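Risk register update: the risk of archive-format incompatibility is retired. Evidence:
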Amino acid sequence: MTSPAEPLLPGTRRALLHRIATAQAEGRAPSLVAAVRRQGQTVWDGSRSCVDGHAPDSDTQFRIGSLTKTFTAVLVLRLRDEGLLDLPDPLERHLPGTGAGEVTIHQLLGHSAGLGAETTAPWWERTPGSLRPTLADVLGEQIAMHPPGQRHHYSNPGYTLLGSLVEAVRGASWEEVLRREVLEPLGMHRTGSLPRAPHAGGWAVHPWADAMLPEPAEDLGLMAPAGQLWSTTADLLRFAAFLAEGDDRVLGAASVEEMKQPSAAPETASLDQYGLGLQLIRRKGRTFIGHTGSLPGFLAALWVSAEDDVAAVVLVNATSGVAIGEVAADLVDIVAEAEPRIPEPWRPLPEIDAELLALTGAWYWATRPTLLRLTADRGLELRQVNGQGRGARFVARPDGTWVGLDGYYAGETLRIVRNPDGSVSHLDLGSFVFTREPYDPAAAVPGGVDEKGWRGLGDQGAS
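Archived output:
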C-alpha cells in the first residue's frame, strides 16, 4: 500500500517543474508559484521568477480573484445548514430592498439568477470600492439581463449580493465571518482581504514587448465577496483538502458534495459546468472541481481530482499570458498519470443484513436487466448491467423506503413491495416496477402481462 507521505518519483517532480517553467517562460509571467497535494500531503511545490534569487514560495501571498467566490459560497451553505435560510428562498426574504429580490439564493450561487456579469462603470476590479458604496451602485439601473433560472450567466455582482446576505444574517462583516468560520478552523492564517508580507506585486506585461507595468491593488469594497482575497499555495492546498472531503468544523461532507453538483446548464456548448460556488470541468476523462480567478496583476487556479486524490494550485502575478486553469489541470494530470492512485484493499462488509442481502442481484425493468447491490454504508446501488443508462445510490429512510442520492433517480423514492406472506413482490421506483424476471406475471406489472407469456416465432400469435 502506498504511504500518504511517500514522495513523488524524481521523474514526476521534473515533469512538474518543466510544466511550470514552460508556463512562466511562454506566458511571460514575472513570477509563478505552484504546489500539489496527494493523499492529504503536500508532495511538491515549485516556483519560477524573472528575478534571480527572488522566486516566491509556498508562503508568498498572491491575489486569487474569483476563487474568493468559493469561500463566499461556503458561508452561505453554513447558513443553510444552521437552518437560518433555505437555498430556494428569494433573496428578498433575508436581504430586502436590493431590487433583485425575486431571484433565489440557489440561483445566485450557481450564476443562474440572470444578473449582469459586471458592475456599472468604472471597471470595478481596477478602481476603489468606495466608488460603489451601496448595492444600487453595484447593480445599476438594469439589474436583470435574463429571466431568473433560465440560463447560466456568470455574475460578479451576484456574489456581492451573497456577501451582503451573509452580513445581514450574521450581523457582522463578510471578512470577519469568513475569518471566524472558515479561515481559522482550516488553519488558513495567510489568507485574508489585504496583503501581508511576503506578497507578490501585480504586473501587466505588454502584449507585444517584454515590458512590464505595475497594476493597482484596490480594496473592492462591496465587491470583496466576489474577488478580494489574497492567499498562498500552502493555504489553498488546505482549502483543497476541505473541498475534497469536507470538514465538520466548517461544512460537512454532504454539503460540500452538494456544491459539486451542476446547478444549471452551461452557458455554451462546453461540457464545463458550475455548481454552487465551484467550477466543474471534464478533461481527459477526469473530473476537476475548484475555481480559477483573475484580477489585474494576478491569476489563480485550484483544481481537485477526487478520484485521483490529487489537487494542484497555481498562482501568477500577471494580468494575462498564462493559461492558468490549464496549467493547474496539467499538474494534476502529471501526478495522476505518472503515479496512479493505489486502490485500497478489498474488504468484506463488517456485518451483513440478511433482508438486504436477499434483495441483491438481478432485477428487470421491463426487459432491461438491472443489478442491485449492497454498499459499504448499508446503502443500495441500482445500475443497469451494461453500466449505462439510469442508476443511482440509495439510502434508507426511517419509514422503510429508500431515497436516491444521485444519478437519474436522485431524490426519487424506492419502495420494497411485499406479498401478503412477507416475500418481496417487486421494487417500485418512481412508478417503475422492477421484477425478478422480465415482465414477471406474478408481479403487479402496470398494464398486465399477456397470459400466453413469452413465445417463439413459430408459436401461434407471434408476428
